[in-house]
Amino acid sequence: MQEEVTDKITDVVKDDIWGAIKDFLNWGFSFGKEDNQIEITVGLLLLIALSFFIASLLLKLMRRLFTRKMGETDKLKFISVFKFIKYVTYIVVVFAVLSFAGVNITPFLAASAALLVGVGLALQDLFQDVIGGIFIIVDKSLLVGDIIEVDSKVGRVIDIKLRTTRAITRDDKIIIIPNHKFITDSIFNYTQNRKTTREKVSVGVAYGSDTRKVEKLLLLSVDQQKGVLKSPKPFVLFEDFGDSALMFGVYFFITDSFIDPSIKSEIRFRIDSLFRENNITIPFPQRDVHLFTNQIKEDPSSNMSVD
């Protein structure tokens, strides 16, 4: 008796419950003919959703493992990179699940290839920016806070994203830089190795000036300047014999090259004041102009009258 009840329960589970589940999973629609026929079922959609969920969990785990020893700022940079990887992974998962479910994905791949060629040609600059952003973030060739010079404009980096980098200039203007510039153009990074940079102020003095006295005054001009480091010590170079002046350069080190124009301005004010106090002349360009005139001698015979 118990065996009959068990058999009936098994038949009900197999035929009714499981059969209903299979019918529900196989419910869907199809389009196309023969080899190109594509069937979309509830089971296929659930499988894709489950694959997305598992792929998302694996990507989150990879991101945590990869960024576990990074600071908060570096972790934020990698969010854009992993978003890009996530989208690519989702596309691969969709095609893999469709192929596993028996769907002929050749038409999809053929159409995608043609589409991607067209999109790639139209958006090649965008792809270059994305690839450049990935390189910047991965190899840390550029960091938030770095001072860079792009197209003769100096700025401090405030944000690095997957496609663009933003920097604020000395005029408090935001410059948006496409990331491909960092892999195709030469970019000056003032603070890549360290924050300390060497700066220079040039000046010319009149011929006949006491050059050693000029050297002492130039060193004095930077000695008490705020922002100039005591070590390494500032120094002066006698750079050249110019057309109208003896050319000198005073070199000094600072820790914030972003504000170096204001420091240089203060040093120039001080140089001018010290030179005036010590009778050192800053000459202006001079040129000697020689005028040559040709005098035409009159021929006496030309004044003779003919009778």
UniProtKB/TrEMBL annotation:
Residues 200-282 form the Mechanosensitive ion channel MscS C-terminal domain. It is found in: Cell membrane. Belongs to the MscS (TC 1.A.23) family. Keywords: Cell membrane, Membrane, Transmembrane, Transmembrane helix. The chain crosses the membrane at residues 40-59, 80-102. The lineage of its organism: Bacteria, Pseudomonadati, Bacteroidota, Flavobacteriia, Flavobacteriales. PANTHER family: MECHANOSENSITIVE CHANNEL MSCK, POTASSIUM CHANNEL RELATED. Residues 125-191 form the Mechanosensitive ion channel MscS domain. One of its GO terms (cellular component) is plasma membrane. The keyword Chloroplast does not apply. Its main location: membrane. This is Mechanosensitive ion channel family protein. InterPro entries: LSM_dom_sf, MS_channel_1st, MS_channel_C, MscS-like_channel, MscS_beta-dom_sf, MscS_channel_2nd, MscS_channel_C_sf, MscS_channel_TM-2. Residues 83-124 form the Mechanosensitive ion channel transmembrane helices 2/3 domain. It is a multi-pass membrane protein. GO terms for molecular function: mechanosensitive monoatomic ion channel activity. It comes from Constantimarinum furrinae.
